[in-house]
Design goal:
Shape: globular
Structural class: mainly alpha
Strand content: under 5%
Oligomer: single chain
Number of domains: 1
Largest sheet: none
Distance between the termini: 35 Å
Number of helices: 5
């Protein structure tokens, strides 16, 4: 429930149409569809991470970049997902909401939906 409320608040109050989610470079958490704009999953992950994880936003984005590279290199979905979840432990430095909603939440999402991205032809 908290996740949905945060999404609604962030989607209404934060300009997430830009491809950087407030960073100096592209936000990379979510299934990428275009380099010019954020996909829906990228918008949602940005909307949740920005208010909950301001101090670790860059580190979380770097976890997503590494995860994407691991998938691209076909190093094994479970291996890539395990590394991603370990990397997201950095979210604990922003407090329990960041750790539970972003760290644990993103980890669960890649384990559930990652198969569709990992097995997608490049």
């Amino acid at each position: 429930m908290l996740f949905l409320l945060l999404c609604r608040f962030a989607l209404l109050g934060f300009a997430i149409s830009q491809p950087n989610c407030g960073l100096d470079y592209k936000w990379s958490c979510g299934a990428t569809e275009s380099q010019m704009r954020l996909s829906l999953s990228e918008q949602m992950s940005c909307a949740v991470a920005v208010p909950l994880c301001p101090r670790t936003l860059n580190a979380i984005n770097n976890c997503c970049v590494r995860h994407d590279a691991c998938y691209s290199q076909k190093m094994g979905q479970q291996f890539c997902d395990d590394l991603f979840c370990q990397c997201l432990c950095v979210s604990q430095w922003d407090g329990p909401l960041c750790a539970s909603q972003v760290g644990a939440g993103f980890c669960v999402l890649v384990r559930i939906f990652g198969v569709f991205i990992y097995n997608k032809p490049q």
